[in-house]
Amino acid sequence: MLKNGERIDDLNLNGLKIIQHENKFKFGMDAILLSNFVYTKRGDKIIDLGCGTGIIPILIAGKSSNTHVTGVEIQRDVADIAKRNVVLNNLTDRIEIINDDIRNIVDKLGVEKYDIVTTNPPYMPHKTGFDKSNESENISRYEINGGLQDFVKVASKLLKFGGKFFMVHRVDRLVDIVYNLRICNLEPKKIRFVHPYVEEKPNLVLVEAKKGAKSGVVIMKPLYIYNREGKYTDELLSIYGKTTIEEE
Predict the structure, then answer these.
(1) Is residue 248 part of a domain?
(2) Are 182 and 212 in contact (CB under 8 A)?
């Protein structure tokens, strides 16, 4: 099950575990926050764009019932880890991993087939001059294989009318996010800002959009990671300990 440089981490949720490689991009808190932000209905078909080692599909499957999740990952070796993570967690009947570019996936899977699309995409615009020593890190962090507009456009095509799109991104890209959602017929419905500390400005944003919806957005209460004593807030601890996604 394990290859050189890999380890198994416990996700502390319903016995779920995940294989990660020491020298490749590892999931962060943003993936946990996004998976908690998602809510599902029984029978939902869900697709995660840029799934990495499969953390979001695994958490969603672990927190919901009778859903099917497809993960799409462009890096062959990372997709291989994701596939083994599905096997490790006995979720082969509920999760499928596809090794492909998200920009090709509509042609492969078809339009308007999914109830929910999720993504924790690369945050940084593609630029020259970044550290080229770790290709996996660069692909995960920078928009090398598709930018924000590609992820939003693909999500819109995959979603059924009335389907929901959930994204976590950097807060300084919020204008870009809303602009691209609107031109792709995805109307922002909920926005939640994530702050490292109570006194600090937000650095992440969680966005829910709905395909074909009327305008009107709810700004949710802020989510704080650390309290004034430098410890995790009660809400964050509850997110890490949450075992179910609230269903509609």
Answers:
(1) no
(2) no
